[in-house]
Amino acid sequence: MTQALPRTQRIPRLSRLSWLMGLYAENHRHLVRLFAPDQLAVGSYVSSVGDGLDVRLDVIECHRYTVELRLTYDLCDPVTGQPDPSAYVRLYRDAQQAETTHCYVGRRWQDVVGMYPPPAQLISHRMRMNTFLGKWLEYLAERGHGVATLAPDPDAAVAGTALQARNLSLVR
Questions:
Q1: How far, CA to CA in Å, does 98 sit from each of 52, 56, 63, 91, 164?
Q2: Is the peptide bond before 154 cis (omega within 30 degrees of 0)?
Q3: Which bin fits 168, alpha (ψ -120 to 50), beta or left (φ > 0)?
Q4: What H or E segment, with its residue span, contains residue 100?
Q5: Which among 43, 38, 49 has a CA at the least distance from the CA of 148?
Q6: Strand segments (E) across the chain
Q7: What is the pLDDT of residue 169?
Q8: pLDDT-derived band at 94, boundaries 50, 70, 90
């Protein structure tokens, strides 16, 4: 006769890293379904559904296996003058993952948790950022944003120049 195991021993447990990888996969699925950024050229796009909160999607760089992008509202933070909220996302085409690298201008993970954080603290911070992205993407989908409402920004040349200047300042 086989022995019955307690319920906690029968259900496999996910590690925090496994949970984070699951968030990356879920965010990829939401993002690709919502805006299909892997099909877009480098540039700025705006999604407007008539609620006064236009969403801006900036495709910063496209590579063979990755797409770098920024998702934000067309709102500016009164203190910094930068778009807020902002999520910088790296979309991995081959692995079908979307990772939020940072959520605010000048607030990369190094700015928040330091240069050498304990792994648990770094994973916890990444989980919060990617949970935020997942919830934001679901909210945008509920509001009606998507591929059908996404159009190239008419002021793309001006926005593109400003975005390139900002990216150069981050590199330096």
A1: 27, 17, 14, 4, 22
A2: no
A3: alpha
A4: strand 97-102
A5: 49
A6: 43-47, 55-62, 66-73, 86-92, 97-102, 150-152
A7: 45
A8: very high
Residue 89 CA to residue 62 CA, distance in Å, equals 12
Which whole number is the average pLDDT over 113-128? 79
Residues 13-22: tens digit of each pLDDT: 668 888 889 9
Distance of alpha carbon 124 from alpha carbon 113, whole angstroms: 10
The torsion angles phi and psi of 95, rounded to 5 degrees, stand at -90, -10
Indicate the DSSP class of residue 37.
G
Tokens representing 11?
């259900």
Q: Are 86 and 104 in contact (CB under 8 A)?
A: yes
| Mean pLDDT within 77-82 | 75
What are the pLDDT digits (tens) for 23-57? 999 999 999 999 999 999 999 999 999 888 899 99
Phi first, then psi: give them for residue 40, nearest 5 degrees.
-95, 150
Token pair in block for residue 92:
């991995």
**Helical axes 119-143 vs 16-35, angle rounded to 10°:** 30
For residues 108 and 101, what is the distance between their CA atoms, to the nearest angstrom? 7
